[in-house]
Amino acid sequence: MTRIALIDPAAAAAPADELLAAVPAKLGIVSAMPTPTPAAEQARALSKASAGPAPTLREDSRRQPRFLARGNVAAAWRARLAPRVIAMLRACDSVVLATADADGHPYVQHRGGPPGWLHVPDDRTLAFADFAGNRQYTTVDNLAENARAFLLFIDYERGHRIKIAGRARVSDDQALIARLTPAGYPANIERAIVFDVDAWSANCAQHIPRRVKGPTRP
Prior knowledge:
Distance between the termini: 21 Å
Largest sheet: 7 strands, antiparallel
Number of helices: 5
Strand content: 25-35%
Shape: globular
Number of strands: 7
Strand order of the largest sheet: 2-1-5-6-7-4-3
CATH architecture of the domain at 77-206: Roll
CATH superfamily of the domain at 77-206: Electron Transport, Fmn-binding Protein, Chain A
Structural class: alpha+beta
Mean pLDDT: 76
Order of helices and strands: HHHEEEEHEEHE
């Protein structure tokens, strides 16, 4: 397992890039983007962000979440995922995905799978195969009305917290779903979800309880 250094709690007010600078590259987190796979290329093709150079937060004000306009909040957010954040997301096994309907009523749902289930084809795109669950389809219904979404990743073992604001959409492209499906994972796949990143930020490790992973349930 790749080891990731803890971020110093004293760095709570530091911008996102400064927080991540506390994660030493010598611990094995890659700093270069790997060559995209066919799955990554297809996910990229589905992304709105792939059309031309990605704008900065200020240049793309219409896509920004409103909270980024408050005070100095924008200073802690970045438009492109940093290489170390990409490495953490690719290795994660659990995230929380928040959506809202057209009237703004929020809904939050867990999404997870084996390490590698969350694909990061580039620094503005996430994609994953959506497994069958309770069949309420609230997330899917919300995205049909309102593409705005928010993703939260917490590493309880090492104390990392990554927040990602963006837009998500559902894809029924069978070729994409096949490429995003984890090999040998016992789940029924219903669709793919592609998440276009608008902005992301990292928080310090304060108040995150430390938990060590135990055996995986059958």
